[in-house]
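Title: Prediction job returns without error message
Component: structure pipeline
Severity: low
Priority: P3
Assignee: unassigned

Description:
Job completed but the reporter wants confirmation the result is attached to the right record. Sequence as submitted:
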Amino acid sequence: MNKQLIVKISDINFRYYFEYEFWSEPEWIKDSGTGGLKVVNATVLLNLLPSNKDGVIQIDFSETKIEIEDYKVELSGQSDISKATQIILSNFKEFFKKDLANMLAWRLAKSI
């Protein structure tokens, strides 16, 4: 039986702010503005698997889950291309959750 350590981290908030510029060649689409992505009240649950290799304790993870209460994308451009991009980024919530969970899991496993 493998020993596990379960870690739960709650109330994580992320805010990403950025400037953007869209353009095409030839120039028929052009827009610029600022954007933001907000993740509110995220909870990460990790199943950590400690192991001992050559006398050194190592930590790996077997399962990572993340729950996000609120995920919001806002772009403030001057054309419809910004609104379309905002809709696309809003629909990538599950993809974003997986990447965020993976990043946090590796960072936590590394810091422990």
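Comment from assignee: result matches the submitted record. The chain has a mean pLDDT of 80.
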